[in-house]
Queue: 3 jobs
Job 1
Amino acid sequence: MSKRGKKVGSTLPKRDANVIFSRRAALMSFVGAGVMGAILFRMAQLQAENLISQQYTAAADENRFDTRIVPPPRGVIFDRFGTILAQTSKDYLVAVIQNDVDDMEEVVGRVATILGLDSEWARRAIIRVRGGSRYEPQPLKEGLTWEEFNAINVRLPELRGIVATSADVRAYPYDVVYAHPIGYVQKPTQRDVDLALEDPAAGAARAMYLRNPQVRVGKAGLEASMETVLHGDAGWRKVIVNARGVEQGEDETERREPVRGSGLVLTLDHELQRTAMQNFGEQAGSAVVMDIHNGDMLVMASAPGFDPNLFVNGIGQADFDAYNLDEKKPLYHKTVTGVYAPGSTFKMIVGIAAKQAGVEDDWHVSCGGGFYYGGRTFRCWQRNGHGRVNLHNALKVSCDVYFYQAALRAGPERIAAVSRQFGLGEVFDVSVPNIRAGLIPDPVWWRENRGEPWTGGLTVNYGIGQGAMGVTPLQLAVMAARLGNNGHAVVPRLVRDAPGVREPGPAPRMNGIEAEHLARVRDGMWGVCNEGGGTARRAGDLQLVRHPETGAAVEITPETRGWEPVQIAGKTGTAQVRALTDALRGRHYSTIEWRFRDNALFCCFGPWHEPRYACAVVVEHGGAGSSVAGPIAREIMRATLMRDPSRREPARLAELDAAIAGGRA
């Protein structure tokens, strides 16, 4: 084919192809330059902004650093003379870092074997730790003994992901002795976290803090009610983390140390508190000792106790069931939540009310063992009767028949009014939770709550502290204190020195309580403990005498036997918890089911020559107050009078806290 025969346009001329390529290259270069220019401009803009606001530097740091909370040590709790009752100490624990574990079931199972725990514990531990961070140690078991801690430590090379360490934890060196007044701390619950989230002042920051596995909060006693004082301020540290949040180091320049919580100095005397708890033995009940002038509670014992250390790291189900199912209720703070019929300890109130109603000192009744009223016979505890008795002798021998009739003379309204003057039915804020008021009924209350009129039979029962009424051991102690100080409305307190706590002023005099009426009742109480026929002669036999030079109470010895005896004034009480038939009462007392036996009570004040202390003891289902509660009160009062703590200089919180901070205590 000739050159003319070739197709025209089958290929572009070389010059045209070069032109097109040059145009495209120029276009691409222009676009690329524009994009690069925009990027460079934006980078310059961001750099300029960052120079001013540091916004992006901070964002980068947030990805590289993490803030870890450091829980503060709780404030130390002291007795009145500086004995440490609750403190922060080292706790040994074994933990797991989930991200470092290949087989969680296998490694936790091996930990369980080393510690002598079963597979159920291992299963529960795995469930618990899987709810926490994968990159921080999650506690498997806390409260390890030194031997358990070492057993884990020596096997760490073969336990990948397991760490053995120590942490600060709350410790109670005297366990059961102060379990109820001091209480205990526990790990926060989900409810605690939810409540924090609902609080606009705390919010997410508080909730995040509560999720820290080392945090504990007060759950009972002073630990709960004084949480804001004891807790302190959390610290924090800035740690370096990788992209997965694993800690790689720490920025030592960015750290705030936690601040220990403030301490508390209590009014309690450790030696007396321990004496009270020891004297209860296997019995259940409560004992309170008060300074009758300033209200200091020197003893606040509730028996049996429990070990608060078991709650700090989470009490086991077996231990909790043992406490919770015990019929003597060791978890129950009987001093403020136990409500009991006062029995014959109420007779002083009835006596004062009768005097207010105009009953003369020489008014006598004849006790033949019972009092017929309203179609039935109200019996005296002494079946053969007490014969002819007045107020003094009726208190001394605890004659029921006298007080049946005295109550009718006084009337229920007056008896209730006098009761309340002496602190019965009143809630005293002594800085612990769940304080109950008890019940002092009157005709108005009865009509409003029972829907029926008050009857004379109720008044008769009122006369001996039985029926629909109840008081707490704390209220009984207040009553005894106000009798002992001759009619001043002293108020109890448990915290002696703490932020915001002030020294109380003089107790005001009670309205309408005449000194002459008090004198007649106080004399009767003295007879109870010191005269022939008194129901508490055993409790009144302190075997103490008064030192002629110092006035101190000292034990009787051949050399001191001629010195003036130290005496107390008191009153026994035996209160039914269930009406027992004659046949049942005729059985040997030990054969009656424990929960149906009478409660035993005793209250007193002393020393008689110069009253300073009041004591109340309640023994649940103990039987007769004279033979059970009285002897316990005797040992407590004997120790109190010999020790005489109110005349010794108490410890000062500022000095104790400074010693703790300086490592000297």
Job 2
Amino acid sequence: MYTKIAPITINTEKKANGAAKIFIADPAPSQEQLAGKLFILIEVEAKKSDANKIIDFVISDINTNYYQNDKLLLREKIEALKIENIFETVLVKTNKNLIDFLSNERIALSPRSINATIGIIFNSELHFSNIGTNQALLLYKEDSDSSYKMINVEKSEDTKEIGGDNLSFKKLFSSIISGEMPSKSYFLFANEALAEYLFNQELIEIITKLAPLGAAEQIKNTLVKINSYIPFLGLIIKNNINGDEAENITQYRQTEASQIISNSRNEQPSLDLKSTEEKTAQILAPSGGVNTKKVSNFCARALRALNPFRLIGRLFKKIFRRDSSLANISTTTLDRTALSSETPRSSKRGRKILIFILILALVLFLANMVYQRTKVMKTEERQENKSYEDYISQKINQAESYRLYEDKKSTKEILTELQTYLDNIPTEKKDKIEGYQEWLNKFEELMSWAQNITKVEQLKVAADFSDLASPESIMLVDGKIFGADSSKKTIYRISLKDNLNSVISSDQIKSNLKYPALGPNGLIYYLGEGQIITLNTKDEKISANKMVITEGQDIIDLDNYNGKLYALDKAKNQLYRYSLTNDEYPQGEARLKTKLEAADVNSFAIDNTGTQSDIYFLKASGEVKKFYDGSEKTFTLDIIEPKFSNPTIIKVLNDIYILDPANKRLAVFNKNGKAIKQYQSDQLNDLKDFSINEKDKKAYLLAGNVVYELPL
């Protein structure tokens, strides 16, 4: 086993108002190897029966949710699926289940009435989350010769109010502290009372000098003597990855334990521990960072191990040194004859071999330097990619947590932050991040949910004008699609029921068939050049009537209300009403009392569904202006993402519909301006027009020469 664990529970049964408990899971060996060991330290201040119910529920729920989690079986296949990710998902589910439990049981629990620590020990890793006043104390050494130090790594939650009308309860465990326990280090999870009654140095002496079970027994004996009424809870965890030692509780009677402590006060511990400075930094630091100190130390050790200069010096010395026998000749007796007889002949072949060895050593040294440098660079690259993966994973998991609580605002904030991060990742790095495309798909899915976007992969073709014409507008009337082609001065009809089509034309059509407006009795009005063309959809006959347009007018859109036509004059910033008189539409009557800046207005629509004929003007920015009885009224449309990019058409029925061709989107709002839904599809290229059938909850969108059916 990598870790040893021992609980401390004293006087918990004497707690008058509330209950406290320590739970340590006992999974099967195969389960523990795959998922680790779950532990819970929980204390609830409430009516005793209610407190016990809450504690039992939390323990049962999280134990079941964790060890029976389907994602555990996928860990061996999906490397990016980590214990802390699964643990966080389980905590989120338990949060929600606890809220439902409290509501169903009608238990009122104060936000300050629960102190709990829930964690997972997996090999030498520790993942835990905390709420309330519990403390998480780490005992570690900075180096092998120093004494133990104690720090509190606990991070209680900044809780948020969630729950029902009569439930004021905090959101539990919204963040997790994760890291690897330093070798031969200790963790002490304790309630506030235990940490207050024993001094830090006293805890260090007991925990580090005794095995966990013995330390737990000694702490119990000490606290019982101090106070026999206050409940104490604690959990000792020892990282024993580099060694194993027997633990027999009978070896640690109080007198013997006290003697061991007193005898060892003046002695340095003989534990063979690695330096825990970097381990402590690692467990407290955010995941994914590059440990530059570790990389630099590795390079230094490699250079020291492969010292080329010493090898080169020895080779040079061997090549050019004189023979040792020559060095022993006395200089007083040295003459030419002696020198000649004592000096060995130089071997050219030997020198060539030595020079070859020298060159080979230099080549190998340079190759090794290149190899080591490449290795370091790859290590740094892996660490950098890992930091990208961890950050993306963390943000995606946070967004999924908010989604579970239907919190679209917080989800959008997290994803917006992640979007900025993704945009700053160099393009060449993205392909090297493991699972990047999967993360990106998940990001888009969550963003679509937060923004009320429904992405439709495959739209049904309702009508296809490709072989007939290139319509620029459509109108749905009685199950038939009417498409107008100004270039051919023709209107085409396709039946949705039997797909039969017909061609409707007239010599009275001079040129354009713009801005179709649906009137009473199935009449469709089109704006031509100085005329209004009217199509009777019942008998499919066309008539044309002159329209008086004064000099300088720029009519950009039509609509019909109570049998009268309304036209927007962009040049004069005015809306005119036209009535058919003696087979013509004389000069229009101005209807706006409040000035409208119509220079950037793309479309307008009149609400025909009620008694109040509100008029909505759509601007290129996506802003909508609302008028009634000629005066502007206060109206604000929700800001949606992605933002509007020159939307072209607005239509008003029971809801407000806006066509946004640049984003291949149809956006839907209620009449208070609140966003309801966004529909997007990659098939919606060259969006021109749309028509709505609210009764059947369908929209028909003209993209190119094809009309697609969109379920609403």
Job 3
Amino acid sequence: MAAAEDFHDMIRRLRFTAIVGLVVLSSVADAARFDETKRPNILLILTDDQGYGDLGFHGNPRIRTPRIDRFARESVRMRNFCVSPVCAPTRASVMTGRYNYRTRVVDTFLGRAMMDPDETTIAEVLSTAGYRTGIFGKWHLGDNVPMRPMDQGFQRSLVLKGGGIGQPSDPPGGSDYHNPILQDDGKPRKMSGYVSDVLASAAIDFMTSADDRPFFAYVPFNCPHGPLQAPEKELAEYRKTDLSPEAFPKASPPIPKDRHQSADEIAKVYAMITNVDTNIGRMLDALASRGLAEQTIVIYLTDNGAASPRFNAGLRGYKGTVYDGGIHVPCYIRWPGHFEAGRVVDRMAAHIDLFPTLVEAAGVALPSGLKLDGRSLLPLLSGDRAIAWPDRTLYFQWHRGDVPEAGRAFAARSDRFKLLRHESPPGAKEKPKLELYDLQDDPGEEHNIADDHPEVVRRMYEEYLAWFRDVSSTRGFDPPRIDVGTSKEDPTVLTRQDWRGPHSGWTANDLGYWEIRVARGGTYDLRMRLTARSFPTVVHLALGGEERTVKLDAGATECAFEGVTWREGPARLEAWVEGNQHTAGVRDVTIHRR
């Protein structure tokens, strides 16, 4: 019988062959319109937890972002561009051109941020069309085979694990933004320098290599996501700056002083952003010095709103909310000679639109049968007035939990109206009422007009429910399985980032399990990292109905199970510690096939 690994590889190869064939046919059919030798390079920059107000260009008088501000003036600016309220869902939509609920990505942790490997990414489409593809930063769509970026179309991959440094997915000794441990083409590697500097340098090396094929460079910086570990040079400057609430323009609605982010935290966030700004400048300068600027599409956006209340350029709400402060982000797109610098596009657009936009700009055909939710923005970016652009409603939703709930914490946003229901306060027995805003007259979402327009509320809510049923029926929300025992990844490390279960979490006493697929039957050795306990413990390992145990003394931090025989196929892996009448999960599990 063929191993599961071989079967999945065969399916992927067949899918890729179909894509390649379609690309070739399309290239022949469209030869008059596109010259393959002149296909544009693409640099896609995504920052993490940078709010709309975290730019000098958006009226922030204290932050220093000269290179992004200059880039904004050189670009087409998407004035009404939206993303998901949190990071992994946004990243799934950027990579696939589809709403994240179609991809199994519903949240940011506990196995809810693993993207189904059968999704077709923009990297896969561009790679099969002859592009060099590379990612440098935060992937956040799966740490293991078959969900890593290198399994999803990226030929070069330098990434951090999980949802960011400082989380349970960190390799031992890799929890700092300075000299981080990154996954270099799938292998852990200790780097030298501040994380954003390292990522930008690697991206520059990739973009300016001697290879003359067009490139797709995806640079999703993990800054300024917490933990707030800022570079010292920039931090020292901001600690000299007045960052009190009074130093910023008055917000409307105002931020209560007891909720306003502290000056010290803002200094760290701004230092991290200014460092990113410098590195964006380095990348743009590298393109210019190599004569690549004119033939490179550069996109800059952020993955959601600011993580904490601070100056937000008049937008209401922050990360995790469906108010515009959580989902409305900057988006600047530059292509010299094709897009007019300084042009402003007011039409509603979103993360799902980048995939079809870039693929069309590259002159590459979409695979047959691939259904995208986004629409190419090329007519808007190029100022093509001959193309009709009808109004449309786009949808955004996020809340904790394994399965999304209809009508909970969602927004439906058109060019004019926005219908939303914010997340219920903890302990609330009833859902909050629906809210409706006229964004043309009220961009700060201060005046709820739902009672004045019941017909608009009814129509938009019915359309939202139809959308929810549609995206929920695509794949469902069971997590993709992690492949164990493949030749592509040895050893496999399972962390709390991707475990599941009603008692799973990130604290020392949480308990979860992993849904895996044993790709090849055989003998396995396992090593587990444990939280030290002040009492003797018993460690349990269970898979496929078979269980093993080992007794440990107080203070133990590691445990090994050797010579475990597993059969090929899907299974649930459980590993837990018992002692002193308590049960808790292990920190992580490293699995090696003999």
